[in-house]
Amino acid sequence: MSNRVLYICKEEGIHLDAEGLSTLSTISQGDLRRAITYLQSAARLFGSSISSKDLISVSGIVPAEVVEALLKACKSGNFDLANKEVNNFIAEGYPVSQMLTQLFEAIVEEKDISDEQKARISKKLGEADKCLVDGADEYLQLLAVVSNTIQALCNMPEGFA
Predict the structure, then answer these.
(1) Boundaries of each Replication factor C C-terminal domain copy (predicted)?
(2) Cα–Cα distances in angstroms (integers) from residue 136 to residues 98, 124, 130, in the given order
(3) Tens digits of residue pLDDT in 102-146
């Protein structure tokens, strides 16, 4: 895919740094049509010189540092800190469904979270995703996921609050 993307960039007069190419490959999941759409959108918004940050901005992907901050707040066991991260996330306008997807990926890859904890968290992520599809409030669903994640990571019984 990278050779085709580089050819398209050259033909269209778009400058894409090496980091942007790697990001484009990741966010488009190897789909050339999706990659072209992201490139076109970024070029319209940011001009012919496109950075990795520009591509992330047009893709709807939540920046990794935002996901990490939310997970770190959950690991702290401090609900007030986690609530603050949820409020910041909502204020930035990122899609909660995308956060749920990325949070799931981050949790699955965590080495210091047990399989039982991962299962509890994943179950709640799935329930929240279903609720979002049904039209539930994004803030409340993300807050419920965060609360459940804190409970799972602190080995509290389910429903403890």
Answers:
(1) 63-147
(2) 15, 14, 9
(3) 999 999 999 999 999 999 999 999 999 999 999 999 999 999 999
CB 118: neighbour CB atoms within 10 A?
Answer: 16
Pair of tokens at residue 141: 């669903």
- Tell me the pairing of strands 15-16 and 49-50: parallel
Tell me the one-letter amino acid at 96. V
Whole-model pTM: value is: 0.81
Q: Within 13 Å, how many C-alpha atoms sit on residue 93's CB side?
A: 3
Decide: 47 and 63 in contact? Cβ < 8 Å.
no
Rounded CA gap, 78 and 41, in Å?
Answer: 39
Q: Which domain holds residue 54?
A: 2-59
Same domain, 19 and 71: no
113, 148 Cβ separation under 8 angstroms: no
- The CATH number linked to 127 is 1.20.272.10
CB count in 10 Å sphere of residue 143? 18
Residue linked to tokens 């992520």:
125
